[in-house]
């Protein structure tokens, strides 16, 4: 089967809630890493076959196929099309999968895969409010098929995170320790210059501004739970933020014809799903499936990225699959770096690639929980 390669990857810095990127139009946010990617790779942008872009809550300024809009806002050739993907939190990771499948099929040679999310411009609640304007309080309201299968069970990510903490015996203290480690790792990585190569400064912002360097366990323990009597607090959850990321996926023919030097090979791509009410358990069966499909074991993977939507998610995943924390999210995760939903997949992969190069590792595995109980898994091989 033909190969798919990652030629290069770049991302914007992450802007916090009401932070430095809050004023940026979503199209301009997405355009930034596209322009940086073209400049870094030196490719003729007119040779790109497609732009596959992840984004959720595509309403308002994020509507109208933001992948296409961002490409045009970047000043790129009009004849290159773009498509926007919504697989919830895994949207841009799925964009990479579709791009890889395109070049592996031989129908495409060069594809830009990426994602963006302007969470200041379009908060998570905005889509819900938009639905309410049409008389819907949830996407499931009024579906006879859904009600017949799942009844009136509450579908809520915070409830799911609480249920997972309970099922896997994960205490609030354990989640707060994990959260603290995320901030400490992210801060240490920036201080050591490990993020420098992957981030293209934007709008005067050169570093991620979501990291809370002075966080303490005492401060985390003092936070009120989101749900009465629960263990999930804002301190153990990912942050709303603004960011965008992009990577160039190339097929073998393009690599040879244009003299490209890939940084990694796409070794495996897959996606699985689990119970949508539990919602966030998908990375467990998805990782098991991916490893079996690839003929690999946990021990064969040098570094892992498991998105920190809530601390209970990677903690349950590590516990279930016996994955050591020292190999997971080694430069911090979404608790410290934010979770710009549509961009997170490529943001994680960009960081994973850089970490493999820094440590000399060969294989990296990335997964993340996604709405609907889904989870993508990508295994990349550093070249």
Automatic annotation (TrEMBL):
Gene3D superfamilies in the record: 3.40.47.10
Name the PROSITE patterns on file.
THIOLASE_2
Please identify the protein, giving its name as recorded. Answer: Acetyl-CoA acetyltransferase
Q: Does the keyword Repressor apply?
A: no
Q: Which Pfam families match?
A: Thiolase_C (PF02803), Thiolase_N (PF00108)
Taxonomy, top ranks, is: Bacteria, Pseudomonadati, Pseudomonadota, Alphaproteobacteria, Sphingomonadales
- Family membership: Belongs to the thiolase-like superfamily. Thiolase family.
Report if keyword Transferase is assigned.
yes
**Organism annotation:** Novosphingobium lindaniclasticum LE124
Q: Which UniProt keywords apply?
A: Acyltransferase, Transferase
């Amino acid at each position: 089967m033909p190969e798919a390669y990652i030629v290069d990857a770049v991302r914007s810095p992450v802007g916090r809630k009401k932070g430095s990127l809050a004023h940026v139009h979503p199209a301009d946010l997405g355009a930034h890493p596209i322009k940086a990617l073209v400049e870094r790779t030196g490719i003729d942008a007119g040779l790109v076959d497609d732009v596959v872009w992840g984004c959720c809550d595509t309403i308002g300024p994020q509507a109208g196929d933001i992948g296409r809009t961002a490409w045009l806002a970047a000043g790129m050739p009009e004849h290159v099309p773009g498509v926007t993907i919504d697989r919830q939190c895994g949207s841009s990771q799925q964009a990479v999968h579709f791009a890889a499948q395109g070049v592996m099929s031989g129908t495409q040679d060069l594809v830009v895969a990426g994602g963006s999310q302007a969470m200041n411009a379009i908060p998570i609640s905005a889509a819900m409010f938009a639905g309410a304007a049409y008389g819907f309080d949830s996407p499931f309201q009024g579906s006879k098929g859904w009600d017949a299968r799942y009844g009136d069970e509450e579908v809520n990510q915070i409830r799911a995170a609480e249920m997972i903490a309970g099922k896997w015996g994960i205490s609030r203290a354990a989640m707060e320790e994990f959260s603290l480690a995320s901030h400490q790792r992210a801060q240490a990585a920036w201080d050591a210059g490990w993020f420098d190569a992957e981030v293209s400064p934007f709008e005067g912002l050169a570093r991620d501004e979501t990291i809370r360097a002075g966080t303490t366990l005492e401060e985390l323990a003092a936070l009120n739970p989101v749900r009465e009597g629960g263990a999930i607090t804002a301190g153990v959850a990912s942050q709303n933020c603004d960011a965008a990321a992009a990577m160039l996926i190339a097929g073998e023919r393009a690599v040879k014809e244009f003299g490209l030097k890939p940084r990694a090979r796409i070794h495996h791509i897959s996606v699985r799903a689990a119970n949508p009410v539990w919602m966030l358990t998908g990375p467990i069966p998805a990782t098991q499936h991916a490893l079996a499909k690839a003929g690999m074991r946990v021990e064969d993977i040098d570094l892992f990225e498991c998105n920190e939507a809530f601390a209970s998610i990677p903690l349950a995943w590590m516990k279930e699959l016996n994955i050591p924390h020292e190999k997971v999210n080694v430069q911090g995760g979404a608790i410290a770096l934010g979770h710009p939903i549509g961009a997170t997949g490529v943001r994680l992969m960009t960081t994973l690639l850089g970490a493999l190069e820094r440590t000399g590792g060969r294989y990296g595995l990335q997964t993340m929980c996604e709405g609907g109980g889904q989870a993508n898994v990508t295994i990349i091989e550093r070249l």
